[in-house]
Amino acid sequence: MAYDVLVLGAGLAGLCAARDLAAGGADVVVLEARSRVGGRVEQVRLEDGRLVQLGGEVVGNAHTAYQALVAELGLTLVPSYVAEPGELTYALHDGLHVGDSPAFFEPADHASQAAVEAAFTALCDTVDPADPWSHPSAAVLDRASVGDWLRLVGATPAVRRAIEAAQLGLSAGSSERTSMLSLLRKCAVTTTRGLYDYDEWENLRVAEGSATVALRLAAELGDRVRLGVPVRGVKVAAAGCAVTLDSGEVVHAAAVVSALPVGPLRDVAVEGVSDARLESLHRQRHALAAKFVAAYDRPFWRDRGQNGLTESEGVLGSSWPQTDDGVLSCLVPPERIAAYLSTDPRFRREEALTELASWFGPPALEPVATFERLWGTDPWTQGYVTQWQPGDVLRVGPLHGTHEPPFYVCGSDQWVAGYMEGAVRTGRGAASEALARG
Ligand SMILES: Cc1cc2nc3c(=O)[nH]c(=O)nc-3n(C[C@H](O)[C@H](O)[C@H](O)COP(=O)(O)OP(=O)(O)OC[C@H]3O[C@@H](n4cnc5c(N)ncnc54)[C@H](O)[C@@H]3O)c2cc1C
């Protein structure tokens, strides 16, 4: 039997693509390697009923496709941790500081930060996120790291340190290993066009749980989603496509939508598409990261005037409260994942809690539950979010996010800036292109 479309991967992108394809009348099946849907959005329930997010959690103002989907599914967006009372914690090599402005800033650093912000916004205004390659200085800006640019515009060492802490707090790559053009492209999708800002990028979350979005999509698709069927090969041809599963089974369809992250896609033998397309896909890479979550019986950090939000120079690069009921998320950034993974797994929990206690005090040592998710080494993710090293925007090139019918690509990696928004936006985009071509 041949389907109209096979969708590879049941993350947000694949589920969104399949839902729209089905709604458009296509006979579609989703092939998913794991025994669950959702990919990088995943949640578990504590014994006391609280939901804990182990993957993607929050969205921002520019995440309009995600916001529209949430409304369609009858779910609710509420303010995220940005509404949490208290102040930010800086956990620096030379001490802890609670306060919304970095402890190491002198008046000259505040002036430098304002100048850097203004210069960044002015440059950001010149970049078209859909076509950064057409920028007159695309090659120069792509070759330069964010660190290079900061030095060029005279950012003080303290400003560079604060920006590095923020980058690693997000578990993005170091400023020294991030293409300036990629950061400009990412920030050009916002209305403020400034450097990354929590209030702009992370101010909303789904009240019913971020992974509930994927579960609702999957419920609508019913038995159109096949779980536990890793894809190993794809043959693409105008006369029909064939997808080979791990089991040896071959499934046929008129078209294929790949919603696989770029890491696992490298392990799939794809034939029948141009070398240029494959190179563009294979040039993409991820920041490798891990997530550590500690659930407490209450948000005890408030007792010390802290809001649970941390930017850290330690092994854990950041923390933030998932909700207002005591669940704390932490990310291990790519630059520190080696230090984390080299620790015997039996001691990682203890070491992570000790680090949290150095930020928030002894109650941090007594969670009701902890969770660790090694996304960077997970075979079906092989990363965390897209990372663009200097030169990568030009290496990946303008084929990024485009299709080669009957082979369509989607997934957060195929949008300018990753995120759940990228998954929803490109998943729905791929479905609409495939439907338009009949
Ligand atoms: C810890 C963490 C925190 C994050 N925080 C945020 C956040 O706060 N806000 C935000 O917007 N984004 C966040 N993100 C990013 C966001 O979760 C992802 O960008 C988005 O969910 C990716 O969706 P996707 O469908 O493109 O890919 P995925 O969710 O990775 O889905 C791909 C699917 O393909 C499957 N697959 C892989 N290989 C194969 C194969 N060979 N055969 C069949 N199936 C296969 C996988 O199992 C998976 O289900 C976070 C991610 C992580 C890991």
UniProtKB/TrEMBL annotation:
Positions bound to FAD: E32, A33, V231
GO molecular function: oxidoreductase activity
Coiled-coil stretches noted in the UniProt entry, renumbered to this chain: none
Essential cofactor(s): FAD
Domain (Amine oxidase) ranges: 12-434
Superkingdom of origin: Bacteria
Keyword field contains Oxidoreductase: yes
Keywords for the protein's UniProt record, in alphabetical order: Oxidoreductase
Family, per entry: Belongs to the flavin monoamine oxidase family.
Protein name listed in UniProt: FAD-dependent oxidoreductase
Top-level taxonomy: Bacteria, Bacillati, Actinomycetota, Actinomycetes, Propionibacteriales
